[in-house]
Design goal:
Structural class: alpha/beta
Distance between the termini: 25 Å
Number of strands: 14
CATH architecture of the largest domain: 3-Layer(aba) Sandwich
Number of helices: 14
Shape: globular
Order of helices and strands: EHHEHEHHEEEHEHEHHEEHHHEEHEEH
CATH superfamily of the largest domain: Type I PLP-dependent aspartate aminotransferase-like (Major domain)
Strand content: 15-25%
Largest sheet: 7 strands, mixed
Length: 337
């Protein structure tokens, strides 16, 4: 068995999830008569303090469905230049919603209120697109958690412009901030919640919002090919994720801090981001072959991703235990020695 530090997306379902999936009561979700899906959607909406939610195949699907539902074709969406929707969703906003992304610089993932305000189209002009949506992210994919006072300022600036929150790791953010998830969600009109990262469900995300928005999103989901049938088999794992797995994320955060501490003992390793959730970003200031390093770890049953711009990312999750971290660090020491 591999120790897999590439992402928390590699998590496999727990035994409890597998049993729930095996015995899930199902129906046809396109007809809205799958009781397990209905339970999951109500549960998620209640947790986030919203009226409704919609089960979809993935986080990218949820984000793009939000843009597709909020916006008219040709609208402009203001978004951080390093957000997932921009960086890792294959240009889908142009293909599906037909919108223009107006990217703005962020401060470690936090949108700068003054910069945002300067980018909103405040006057109706034949030359300008309409500002149709503002997109936020929390926790950010760089591992940083955005403070709530930042969201409050952005909500005030946005006025009637809707806000979509990519909350793929919102429960990691709420764990770090020590607040209920709804305290983050209240600043957004729609939220993407991912079940298949640190929460261990095998498949699925939820798009959350008010009833009218979700009704419109349901039809758009059908257009995107996301109308699923007896999908309660998957939703059953999502229920376990929301009822149980989100409450253990602090363990992953503690393991990430432990990993960072162990790595920092190497004189040539620099931790480049503050460890707030389950991610450790670091640079290795040493002359070595990256490919040989990755291959050496793989031969020793450790999977990692190549660095991006010279920065490695290790991610802790349910299947990474303290003894695994010790083994990883010891194996790295053998390679560099």
């Amino acid at each position: 068995m591999y120790i897999d530090l590439r992402s928390d997306t590699v998590t496999k379902p727990t035994e409890e999830m597998r049993k729930a999936m095996a015995y899930a009561e199902v129906g046809d979700d396109v007809y809205m008569d799958d009781p397990t899906v209905n339970k999951l959607e109500k549960l998620c909406a209640d947790i986030l303090g919203k009226e409704a939610s919609l089960f979809v195949p993935s986080g990218t699907f949820a984000n793009q469905l939000a843009l597709f539902t909020h916006c008219q074709r040709g609208d402009e969406v203001i978004i951080g230049d390093n957000y997932h929707i921009v960086q890792h969703e294959a240009g889908a906003a142009a293909v599906i919603a037909g919108v223009q992304l107006r990217t703005v610089e962020t401060k470690k993932g936090a949108m700068i209120p003054e910069v945002l305000e300067s980018k909103i189209r405040k006057v109706e002009d034949i030359h300008y697109p309409r500002t149709g949506l503002i997109c936020l992210e929390n926790a950010h994919s760089n591992g940083n958690v955005i403070p709530l006072d930042n969201f409050k300022k952005i909500r005030e600036i946005a006025g009637n412009i809707p806000i979509h929150l990519d909350g793929a790791r919102l429960f990691n953010a709420s764990t770090f901030l020590k607040v209920e998830p709804k305290e983050i969600a209240k600043y957004a009109d729609s939220i993407n919640i991912c079940l298949s990262k640190g929460l261990c469900a095998p498949v699925g995300s939820l798009l959350v919002g008010n009833k009218e928005f979700i009704e419109r999103a349901r039809k758009k989901r059908k257009i995107m090919g996301g109308g699923m049938r007896q999908v309660g088999i998957l939703a059953a794992a999502g229920i376990v994720a929301l009822e149980k797995m989100r409450f253990r994320l602090e363990e992953d955060h503690e393991n990430a801090r432990y990993l960072a501490k162990r790595l920092s003992n190497f004189a040539f390793i620099e931790i480049v981001e503050k460890v707030e959730i389950n991610m450790v970003f670091f640079k290795i200031d040493k002359n070595f072959s990256t490919n040989e390093f990755i291959e050496y770890l793989l031969k020793n049953n450790i999977k990692i991703n190549p660095p991006e711009d010279g920065v490695f990312r290790f991610v802790t999750h349910y299947w990474i235990k303290r003894e695994d971290i010790d083994y990883v660090v010891e194996t790295m020491a053998k390679f560099f020695n």
